[in-house]
Amino acid sequence: MNSSINSLYENAIKDFNSRISSTGALVSYSGSKTGRSPKDKRFAMNNKSNDIWWGDVNMPIDQDFYTKCLDLAKSYIEPHTVNTITSKINPASTGIWNKDGTFNKEIFDKLTKNFILLGDKKIITKQMFWDHLEERHKGQQLGNACHVYMFIPVSWRKVTEGSINDLFKYFSDTTYKNEPAFTIDRLFEFYTNPNKCMNERVKNNSLK
Prior knowledge:
Layout: H1 5-15, E1 19-20, E2 26-27, E3 42-45, E4 59-62, H2 63-77, H3 82-86, H4 105-112, E5 116-118, E6 121-124, H5 126-137, E7 144-148, E8 152-155, H6 156-171, E9 174-176, E10 179-183, H7 184-192, H8 194-207
GO molecular function, one term: phosphoenolpyruvate carboxykinase (ATP) activity
Pfam family, one: PEPCK_ATP
Protein name: Phosphoenolpyruvate carboxykinase (ATP)
């Protein structure tokens, strides 16, 4: 069964350096060198491709060579696919979700215990997230989540940084010292009812 749209959004902004656009669309950047290269295109020669117009663009390779290339490509890609990476637990996460994806109230309370009182608002800042992260992991080397182009490492800490930045950029409901911030109530709502927060964001953008 396919995941719901809301579930895909949650996982993308929680564990990957993805973005939500001003229209509410989920944005992931594939890199600057991932465009089409027509002259590198090849077709495997078999009964289905006999009638292809062969030439400078449609160039043939034999079926055995195609199969070997396909197997090699799969061996490179498989460790870096979304399914493979999302099956891993982010060791650098703030830990507000349990391993099964449910909300962890105990960790949430630890994160929010040192709130800033601003008028009648209890404020949580981005720095509090980072302080909480450092307290949980105490400077441990937490390794890499994946590699871009198979050799450029992307650390778990960088993945978490992107998630926290996006959380404050797109879903915060107040400011503190001219920076995006959360009230405790809003942050609690995001973690316990993220679908509602995402739907509100999409609705608000459509009204602009």
